[in-house]
Amino acid sequence: MRKADVIIVGGGAIGLMCAWMLARRGVRILVIDSGGPAATHAAAGMLSPSFERSLHGGGDALGEFSRASLSLWREIAPALEEASGVDIDYDESGVLCVALDDLEASVFDADSRYCDRLERNEVLELEPALSSSVRCAWFARTDAQVDPRRVREALKRAIARESGAVKFDSRVVSIETHGARAGRVRLASGESLEAGRIVLATGARIDGLAELPAGAVFPVKGEALAVERIASAPRRVVRTGGAYLCPKSDGRIIIGATELNRDRSLNTDDRRLRELRAAAEIAFPGLEDAAETERWAGLRPATADGAPIIGPAPSAPGLIYALGHYRNGVLLAPASAAAIADLIASGRAGPEIAAFSAARFTELGDS
Ligand SMILES: Cc1cc2nc3c(=O)[nH]c(=O)nc-3n(C[C@H](O)[C@H](O)[C@H](O)COP(=O)(O)OP(=O)(O)OC[C@H]3O[C@@H](n4cnc5c(N)ncnc54)[C@H](O)[C@@H]3O)c2cc1C
Predict the structure, then answer these.
(1) Is residue 29 within 6 Å of ligand 1 at its C-beta?
(2) Which fold would CATH assign to domain 6-86+147-216+305-361?
(3) 219 lines ligand 1 (CB under 6 A)
(4) H or E element: which one contains 160?
(5) Atom 10 of ligand 1 has which residue's CA nearest to it?
(6) From ligand 1's centre to the CA of 301, what distance in Å?
(7) Fold that domain 95-141+218-303 belongs to in CATH
(8) pTM
(9) Which pLDDT tens digit goes with each residue over 260-316?
(10) CA distances (Å), 195 to each of 7, 185, 206, 207, in order?
(11) Rounded CA gap, 137 and 104, in Å?
């Protein structure tokens, strides 16, 4: 195998998008993934900054970053499909957030720069299978969705076509860094590999590989299920107070998702999934007849302040973090990867990621 300029540890949406963007710029990359569970495999694939409280809780910088990433997806989706030959199910039909009763309608708000308020009849025109109890909705016309499993497959193929190397059977157990440019990763097999830079994109598991205080990155488990797409199903992504529904072109409707703080298990709970499905059926009563086809759980990589960690490790700039994308890693993958590719090319972190520096956690104690 050729020696890589950059080793990327972790082959989820973030690591693979970084790898593809670097490989397209002629950088020799090696992706190392343990083959373990990836949040990306569990994600619903909404590219939807408009109704994500978690993005706005992370401050203006994160709101702007997520908008920039949504714009990048518009260019990247066709380019990735072309480069890989894989249809990633990119769907620009917008995202509808509905109020199903008077109480929801009374507290219902969204940013009118990006969303249009629709009254009941307009909502039912867009989504005829919605419950007739719907009061109103906000419609984010430019929000979108992809199929994250297909995105991952497409990225692997596109990377291979750029002569990038991907190892999906190797766990990294330690990282040594030597100042700004060189580093070495050790694999569980005992093998050790060197590169000019190392990007850490291991999702919710950092396993001592990052020089971050305990508690800076932690898992928030999410459970979801899929039902078969029947005639009275949503046409586009629909969000309600209790669930979201994402219709995919392969015939699945993904219904998500629970949130369990610091739960590292990957089992699913019958009662919680029943509640999720019930919330979806309140919005789309016809779904009562739809057979469940799959259920799963994944670990969202959360951070103590809700914003991702993107940029060099403060004491070892040859190690670059791409961590903590929490509920929106699929949405944020293009902007994060572009920022990291620029950082590696120029040696400087751009202003768009200044707010996401790891330095903000240096004062954080164990929690
Ligand atoms: C139920 C659910 C629904 C979601 N819906 C959405 C959504 O609609 N839109 C959205 O944008 N986001 C969504 N998310 C969030 C999104 O899934 C994550 O933010 C994103 O996938 C994080 O990507 P990542 O590459 O950082 O991590 P991951 O996808 O977890 O990838 C990390 C990879 O690193 C590997 N790894 C870990 N440790 C090592 C090691 N030591 N050595 C080698 N490899 C290692 C893992 O096996 C894994 O393959 C959802 C998440 C969940 C759970």
Answers:
(1) no
(2) FAD/NAD(P)-binding domain (3.50.50)
(3) no
(4) helix 148-161
(5) 328
(6) 7
(7) D-Amino Acid Oxidase; Chain A, domain 2 (3.30.9)
(8) 0.97
(9) 999 999 999 999 999 999 999 999 999 999 999 999 999 999 999 999 999 999 989
(10) 6, 8, 20, 21
(11) 10
